[in-house]
Every structure is written in C-alpha cells, then in structure tokens.
Amino acid sequence: MLATSLLFLLRFHANMATSMASQAAARGLRAASFRHLFLDKVKCTTVSPRRWLNLQEYQSKKLMQESGVAVQRFYVADSASEALKAAKRLNAKEIVLKAQILAGGRGKGVFDSGLKGGVHLTKDPAVVGELAKKMLGFNLTTKQTPKDGVKVKTVMVAEALDISRETYFAILMDRSCNGPVMVGSPQGGMDIEEVAASTPELIFKEIIDIFEGVRDDQALRMAANLGFKGPLQRQAADQIKRLYDLFLKVDATQVEVNPLGETPEGQVVCFDAKINFDDNAEFRQKAVFAMDDMTESDPTEMEAAKWDLKYIGLDGNIACFVNGAGLAMATCDIIDLHGGKPANFLDLGGGVKERQVYEAFKLLTADPKVEAILVNIFGGIVNCAIIANGITKACRELELKVPLVVRLEGTNVTEAKRILTESGLPITAAENLDDAARKAVAAIKKE
Ligand SMILES: *[C@@H]1O[C@H](CO)[C@@H](O)[C@H](O)[C@H]1NC(C)=O
Ligand SMILES: *[C@@H]1O[C@H](CO)[C@@H](O)[C@H](O)[C@H]1NC(C)=O
C-alpha cells in the first residue's frame, strides 16, 4: 500500500478483522473515528481507533483553503473581542459561531458558564461577542467528551450559508485497490454507513491512478453521480480535483467531506471535512503534526508513548502485547480466526527493557474490557529473558487476575521459559502464534 504507515495498516487491518468477527463494530468511540467503506462488498463498517492526529475544524478548513477548496469564509478568535471584530469583518447576512473542540456533538453540548450549545447562528455581530464570552475559557461537555468537558480555547466565526443540496464525498487509501479511491454519494449530510447499507446503488467509486492523478473524465463522472447539474458539475469536478491535491499534499489517508453541498446561489462548498493523516509522513509534514492538540488525546496512548510503546485501543477482550505492526496484524487475524477479538495492542519497539514490559502490562490491564492477555513476541534480536523477567514482575506487582498466554521466540528462549516456569505463576506457554491465539480465546470461553 502506498504511503501508508504500518500503524495505519494495523488499525485498518485489526479493525477489519474485528468487524468481520462481529457486526457490532465499534461505533463513535471518539471524534477520531475512522471510516472505511468495504467498497467491493458494498458494505460499510465504522472502525474507531481511539486516537489519531485529529485537527480542529478551523485547522482542517485552513488546509483546505490553502489547496483552493471552497469553504465558508471564516475567522478564528481566542477572545470575545476578537470574535466580535471577526463577526463585523465577515460582513455576512448570517454568522455561525462554533466552539473548537475535537469531540463531536458540539451543537447539543453545554458549557460550564451555563450557555447551551457549542454552535450558534445569529445575524448580529454583537451577539457573537456576547456568546463568545460564555464559550472561551469555559468547559464544553458533549456526549463525546469526558464528563467535566473540554476547555474551549478557540472559536470559529464563519459566514453561514444555506445548503440547498447535500452530497457525500471522500478520498481514501483503499487496500483492495492498492491506492487512493474516491467514494461519493448523492445522499450526503447523513450517516454514510446507513446509505451504503440501505441503498448501495447510491454509492459511487472511482479508483485513482496514483501516477496519473484524478482524470477530468473521472472528476466529471463523479460530479454527475453526485447529482450536480449544469455549471455546478464543472465546479464540483474542480473541487474534487482540489481535494485530491490536498490529499496528496498533506499525506492524508482519508479526506472525507460531508456534506459537499450546493448553495441556493449556485456555489459548491465543502461544509465539513475530516482529514486523517499518515503518521509515517510526520517527518515531512511538520506543520500539520505541530497542530496536534494533545489536551484532548487519549491518556493511554500518551502514557504508552512515554515508554516508547505504541498503543491501539480496539473493542474486543483480548489484550495483545507484540513487537512490530506486522506481528500485530497476524495476531489480530489469528485471534479472529479462533473466534476472539483483540481489546488492544501494545507494540514494543526494538530495544526492550524490563521496565517497559512492566509498564506495558500496566497499560494493557488498565482496560476493563480485558479478559485475557496474549503475549506474542518474536524476533532474532529480542532477548526473551528480559521480557520474561518483565512479565513475572508485572504479574506479581499488578496481581494479574486474567489468564495470560505467552509465546516468546528469539534469543535466550530457554532462559525465558525457565524464568516463567520457575515463577510458579499461572502462565500458559504457547508454541506458536496459532497455539497462543487458540489458548487465549479458549481461556475466555472457559470463564
Ligand atoms: C475543564 O476541562 C479540562 C480539560 O480540558 C479539565 O482538565 C478540567 O478539569 C475541566 N474543568 C472543570 C472546572 O471541570
Ligand atoms: C541471555 O540472558 C543473559 C542473562 O539472562 C544475558 O547475560 C545474555 O546476554 C542474554 N543473551 C542474549 C543473546 O541476549
């Protein structure tokens, strides 16, 4: 897969396997939900890793603007007086004021200032100033935030536009096509999974040749399929090409515009967009990654990063401790094959330290969904004795209550096995990955 990080692949893959195992895919865990359409099966699934580099709405819109994508005119403010100034400067018929937080459900949220709603429409700039005063510096609680809410540091003041028609458009990296694909539907503004499930004939797809880019005929065909008529068709095709430019420019793995709408004045506008980024491209997307606002990120992932571990939360019940994304994918598949589902993954990098193993166990077991732990460490350079020591220490100090299955392969395996056996702890040894997955799934079923 082109320009796609292993971690992305892992999320993608892990989620594909888990969603196949269960129709009840993880839904709406957080704002960082990543959508993948199973294009070939015309079936949709929502998969939700816990965290992703997630930009605020105004940040995404700035990136879009820079690529010439049509968005509503807007300003950003971090004080009420600036918000008021911005509202005046917009000189718009109607203004929309939006609190900038990552979590969804803003419209129905409540501020601890007493103000209801993180999104307000008004025609009066003075009202924008008044409302901003009750937003900035206060916590906004929505269905997706922690119960104390998230502090609002920025508001977006934008021109409100009427929408006469809403469509859905996305560009994403698709595994089955080995590259980017455009997906669109004339049924926008709603849950695209639902559209795909109830009216799959309204989902259109165009495979993009990575060398050629989006061809004119493709862009026009997509625009027509989205239901744009007359001069709007060209405009929409133009927007589609610009969105693809953006996709390439920022190393996105997905750009989703919902809705891509038209106004009564005959303008095609991207009203809302979600951009996911390839985290392997961080080295050349410094400006994008610098926008990452850690205050809303998953504390488990942050804690993991502190110990040089990568954590990915999923919705099953088997915690997985592995080294390498490839091994994580294989582990996920085989757990799935045996009828289980991973709860999470912790990826141990190269240079293993005992303390790291201990911290890894702490993180894995902190997840209340976890009913069993599977350790699958494999590699010529891994000193398994260190891992075994870390495991026994963690088991004792954390008073591990769930079944633990361990498969270690590398150097010092004999030593590692001795450490585990002599510990007297109830650890199930496994010979290989298949054996380990089978035993972990069986351990849960037994309980
Ligand atoms: C407001 O939200 C922040 C997180 O952004 C949190 O740390 C803080 O405790 C909250 N404050 C109140 C008063 O609830
Ligand atoms: C095997 O473990 C011992 C101590 O447990 C250590 O001294 C030795 O370096 C290890 N061997 C390798 C190849 O890591």
Describe what you observe in this structure:
The chain has three domains: 2-31 and 298-446, Succinyl-CoA synthetase domains (Rossmann fold, 3-Layer(aba) Sandwich), CATH 3.40.50; 38-54 and 163-289, D-amino Acid Aminotransferase, Chain A, domain 1; 73-159, ATP-grasp fold, A domain (Dna Ligase, domain 1, 2-Layer Sandwich), CATH 3.30.1490. 35% of the residues lie in helices and 26% in strands. It is built from 14 helices and 21 strands. Strands 10, 11, 12, 13, 14 and 15 form a six-stranded antiparallel sheet that branches. The longest helix is centred in the middle third of the chain and has 19 residues, at 231-249. The protein starts with 5 loop residues before the first helix and ends with a helix. Bound molecules: 2-acetamido-2-deoxy-beta-D-glucopyranose (NAG) (2 copies). One 2-acetamido-2-deoxy-beta-D-glucopyranose binds at residues 112, 139, 148-151, 295. One of its GO terms (molecular function) is succinate-CoA ligase (GDP-forming) activity.
User: What ligands does this structure carry?
Assistant: 2-acetamido-2-deoxy-beta-D-glucopyranose
User: What global shape is seen?
Assistant: globular
Beta-strand content: 25-35%
Number of strands: 21
Radius of gyration: 24 Å
CATH superfamily heading of the largest domain: Succinyl-CoA synthetase domains
Uncertain spans, ≥5 residues at pLDDT below 50?
1-10, 12-51
**Class based on secondary structure composition and strand pairing:** alpha+beta
Please name the CATH topology of the largest domain: Rossmann fold
Helix content: 25-40%
**For this structure, what is the CATH class of the largest domain?**
Alpha Beta
Q: End-to-end distance, in Å?
A: 40 Å
Major beta sheet summary: 6 strands, antiparallel
The total number of structural domains is 3
Count of DSSP-assigned helices = 14
Task: Provide the CATH architecture of the largest domain.
Answer: 3-Layer(aba) Sandwich
InterPro entries: ATP-grasp, ATP-grasp_succ-CoA_synth-type, ATP_grasp_subdomain_1, Succ-CoA_synthase_bsu_CS, SUCC_ACL_C, Succ_CoA_betaG_euk, Succ_CoA_ligase-like_bsu, Succinyl-CoA_synth-like
Domain ATP-grasp: 61-107
Main location: mitochondrion
Pathway: Carbohydrate metabolism; tricarboxylic acid cycle; succinate from succinyl-CoA (ligase route): step 1/1
